[in-house]
């Protein structure tokens, strides 16, 4: 994969270049200090992958993407976590917080490789064109959650339950219970089905947080989550649950 590094900080570009040396399938074809320089290099070099900072002199990383007719796959690199939600809305592969760890970079590059192994590896469409369905998230991905004035950057593996609460969905992690304006259908489409299971019309559970399972009424199941509530699995989903988790 040919990669272009876009960051106004020379030190940040140097550190990222050093980290990428551990990945022989990634070739850095260029660097840019700001959006105008990046735009010219994108046209000239046609990279497969764009490591993109958000805060830069002049245009932001988001403004750069909005100005392009087509763009390569994008991995945001930034010191700020408040733009994570917007990053996923523009179909970014990943959102890496500085200082970038090799482990998180490894996860991001695995997503990039997966894209190039499928026909969907074509360029990301411009904002004016219909966007493809968002890419599924792995349990190791971190997501930005905002509820009122409070914000979190939480790893999906730490979320034990998604539950409908009125017209919102409530998220259970640690001692927090924020509400987000997303439907369970939207979340189910993005979550890893090997980790998250739709227990009923109201709830999606993280299988890794199950503490105990017991038979319940009418051939259904009741699941107790570690440090969390009990969840009753619907009859239809109880059958599916047994099929999925049986030898």
Automatic annotation (TrEMBL):
PROSITE patterns: HTH_LYTTR (PS50930), RESPONSE_REGULATORY (PS50110). InterPro entries: CheY-like_superfamily (IPR011006), LytR-like (IPR046947), LytTR_DNA-bd_dom (IPR007492), Sig_transdc_resp-reg_receiver (IPR001789). Residues 2-113 form the Response regulatory domain. Pfam families: LytTR (PF04397), Response_reg (PF00072). GO terms for molecular function: DNA binding; phosphorelay response regulator activity. Gene3D superfamilies: 3.40.50.2300, LytTr DNA-binding domain. It comes from the Bacteria. The modification 4-aspartylphosphate is found at residue 53. This is LytTR family DNA-binding domain-containing protein. It comes from Hymenobacter cellulosilyticus.
